[in-house]
Amino acid sequence: MTSTTSSSASSSALDTAAVVESVADLVRENYVFPDVARELADLLRRRSADGSYPAGSEEELADAVTADLRSVNGDLHLALKHHAVPVPPERGAAVLAEMRRKFDATLGGVPRVELLDGGVAVLEISSHMFPLDWAAQPLAAALSLVAPAEALVLDLRRNLGGDPDTVAFVCGYLLDGRTHLNTMVSKQGERVAQSWTPPFVPGARFGADKPLYVLTSGNTFSAGEELAYDLQQLGRAEVVGEATRGGAHPRDGWTVHPHLELSVPVARAVNPVSGTNWEGTGVRPDVPCDAEDALDRALSRAVARLAVARLAG
Fold this sequence. Notes:
alpha/beta, 6-stranded mixed sheet, 3-stranded antiparallel sheet, 8 helices, 12 strands, elongated
């Protein structure tokens, strides 16, 4: 795909009409659903011609355009995002710059690793599934550390998305053998990429046999949802908590103004087990409960299951 950039990206002055025209062009060219893309582009241009968009405020413009982008099919990955700090003009660079700041503030995306009573480990991955070339080392260290535990609780309640390659990397520690996780399909309906667990992971695997619980909340999104969904569909984990937000489409980003980044889904995910994905519905928990109660619920289930196993053994 060819990157298209509005001339408004070279100046901090807000030219509302130019930004909206750039957004309309990019959505029509790149959105994974062509019919919806045309409908949205027409809507944006019509609203712009009517003078419906606010002038002078990047943040207010972002909110108004985002509401229109989501008005047809509710795709939460479609957005015009406002950034308080000026963002780079290169395609995809805005979200990476923001994620880098969060990576540095969260111990590489693994803010909690703890062994609790009863041999149950808790590992939290947040705020994102950071790009694998950043996250591989801290994730490998954390996952290897919990590998000897008798059961594992994977906390994704604060995970807001990120890199599908990182999802596959994490799954490599929780499954045995090479496993097909997902297929990405283009707007033309062609298979563009498949996601598989890696044949090798550094460090020790937790493996495919010990009890595994995944915690979710109504804020869990995108790649965080994919990790929960993949493990659930494979029968590897019980999902405990709330239904997730429901964003399954991988996205790309374009800077259309120094403070505005357009997010557009460029493919759709197809799970090899379900034949579909979690778009719009979210990942439905196996054990529904309030997110704040999810850890206690998972721990009680893990301890009970381990007690039964010890008696049987």
